[in-house]
Amino acid sequence: MGGVLSRRDLIRILGASGVAAGLGGISAASAADAASTDDPDAFQGSVIKPQVIQPTGSCPALVGGKVIQPRRELPVLGQTDVLVVGGGTAGVAAAVAARRAGAQVTLVERYGHLGGQWTGGLVLVVVGHIVKGGKQVCQGIGEEMLGRLDKLGGAIIDRQPGANPTVDAEALKYVMVEMVQEAGVKTLLHCWGVDAVLDGNTVRGAVFESKSGRQAILAKIVVDATGDGDLLAAAGAAHQRCKYNIGLVSRIGNLDKIDKARAEGLKEPRGLGARTPVPGVRWVNMSGPEADGLDVSELSRLEINHRRFIWQSVQKIRGTRGYEAVRLLETAPQLGVRVTRLLEGVTRLTLRDFKAGIRFEDVVAVGGAVAANHAEWQIPYRALVPKNSVENVLAAGRCISAELKMADMIRVIPICWVTGQAAGAAAAVAVADACPARQVNVAKLQQLLKQQGAYLG
Ligand SMILES: Cc1cc2nc3c(=O)[nH]c(=O)nc-3n(C[C@H](O)[C@H](O)[C@H](O)COP(=O)(O)OP(=O)(O)OC[C@H]3O[C@@H](n4cnc5c(N)ncnc54)[C@H](O)[C@@H]3O)c2cc1C
Fold first, then answer.
1. Among 228, 274, 296, 306, whose Cα sits 20 to 30 Å from the Cα of 290?
2. Cβ neighbour number for residue 310 with a 10 Å cutoff
């Protein structure tokens, strides 16, 4: 071919070297995708290794009607100082906090994006970071996320009394990836944490299922930011298992195309939701019924029912004169699970303490007013640490130690970001001091959190 490269050859070479040179920053893969639009021959693959079909000996066996999992050694994918399981609000804050404090951090997330309920659940409104009088008490890494979103036009930052910031989920996914990458957090997506690795009663890592199979990651400290306390439960940490309302959030569009003249005199249809940063698009919350968010049959049933309900609700809106243009844009990729497991920590947050305005010497986070207009309240480090003797695992986010009556306080987004930051910073202090997470020097932790922009009252 006289040294002249075809487009296909060029893409192959760039793909092999992993370099995007000459394509103006476009990766070889995206160049291939772009090429495919007008070149039916553009896609290509290569054999990594020939397929060997033989029993591996690790498959569960049916023995006497029971499914028996044979004992086997698991490949260790890596070692890290701090392993954060779950990449939602709390997990991202924990990972960034720990890494910025100098620890090596690995963050694993079961889905293909970060943000958990805040992005994948389409829970777009941030409540609970401000108290009576307008003071903002949830600061730090979460506030940095809001600031970055604001600069990108990815949020409506409204902190007037009665109003709350609203984010764009896609902008937030972008910001979260930027933040973990800038910090140097090793991030693994599509990785489902299924078990704890134990050395006696000390957690030494976690086991994951992914397309790569079952693997382990070893760690000095594990932060459970799964929202459901999956790792805490696997490690044997005492907890309460709860039922709570499970909904499904959706976004509807073309609200700017409502024909107000035609709709004149009609009552506004229900389910029009609240504004988002995207013009003409609103998000629609849903309480849903009380259910067990750890029961796969329940989750499946709710997912199916909620989707049907949302579709039919939007059709009703579209059937209203003047509202014909309204469209269902998306149902949230993640079901709206609110509360499942609550850790039994060394200290448990109670409504009584909250009402009494109890202050804690080991305060590591402060919460604001959620529904009513009340004063700030404190979260002690001991609410992140298991009560029974399971070592080196910390809770962050909506599964921290609290009685169920406090669930609506602890599960809101800002509380998840402040408890995430606290758990991540604590893990980094424990690693630096080579001490168990339970014995972290709290004064040092508080100082670190303040340096990281947190407000502790
Ligand atoms: C319908 C609904 C409406 C809400 N409305 C509001 C509101 O208006 N304002 C407000 O502030 N809050 C609201 N909340 C609460 C708030 O959205 C959540 O409680 C908060 O976002 C939880 O953050 P988190 O990081 O603790 O957990 P999650 O967001 O649940 O994040 C957990 C992450 O861990 C991952 N994960 C789970 N298990 C595993 C595993 N085993 N291995 C690996 N990864 C795992 C998940 O995929 C997820 O990314 C609402 C919640 C719901 C469901």
1. 274
2. 22
In the prediction, which pLDDT does 296 show?
98
Q: How far is the CA of 334 from the centre of ligand 1 (A)?
A: 9
Our mutation pick for probing the ligand 1 site, out of 89, 117, 299, 413, counting the most ligand atoms within 8 A of Cβ, is 117
Find out whether the beta carbon of 284 lies less than 6 Å from any atom of ligand 1.
no
Query: Could you tell me how many helices (H) and strands (E) the chain has, helices first?
Result: 12, 22
Chain-centroid distance, C-alpha 345? 22
Amino acid at 261: A
Give the DSSP H or E segment for 107. strand 105-108
Side-chain-side CA neighbours of residue 209 (13 Å) = 3
Task: Tell me the mean pLDDT per 10 residues along the chain, length 457.
Answer: 45 42 41 57 82 75 95 96 98 98 98 98 95 91 97 91 89 98 98 98 98 97 98 98 98 97 93 96 98 98 98 97 98 98 98 94 95 90 96 98 96 98 98 98 98 97
Within 8 A by CB and 6+ apart from 170, the residues are: 119, 154
Using an 8 Å Cβ cutoff, are 192 and 362 in contact? Answer: no
Q: Is the CB of 91 under 6 A from ligand 1?
A: yes
Probe ligand 1: pick from 96, 334, 413, 417, max atoms within 8 Å of CB?
413
Q: What is the pLDDT of residue 373?
A: 80
Describe the chain by its helix, strand, coil percentages, rounded to 5: 35, 25, 45
Q: Would you state the torsion angle of the CA atoms of residues 10, 11, 12, 16, taken in this order, to the nearest 10 degrees? A: 110
Q: Is 89 in the pocket of ligand 1 (CB under 6 A)?
A: yes
Handedness of CA 216, 102, 395, 237 (dihedral sign): positive
Amino acid identity for residue 423 in this structure: A
Q: Is 192 in the pocket of ligand 1 (CB under 6 A)?
A: yes
* pTM, two decimal places: 0.91
245 lines ligand 1 (CB under 6 A): no
Q: Dihedral through CA 243, CA 244, CA 245, CA 251, nearest 10? A: -110
Q: Is the CB of 118 under 6 A from ligand 1?
A: yes
Q: What is the pLDDT of residue 356?
A: 93
**DSSP SS3 for 443:** helix
Which pLDDT score, from 0 to 100, does residue 40 have?
67
Which pair of tokens denotes residue 88?
A: 């939602």
Residue ranges in 319-349 assigned as alpha helix (H) = none
Give residue 52's pLDDT: 67
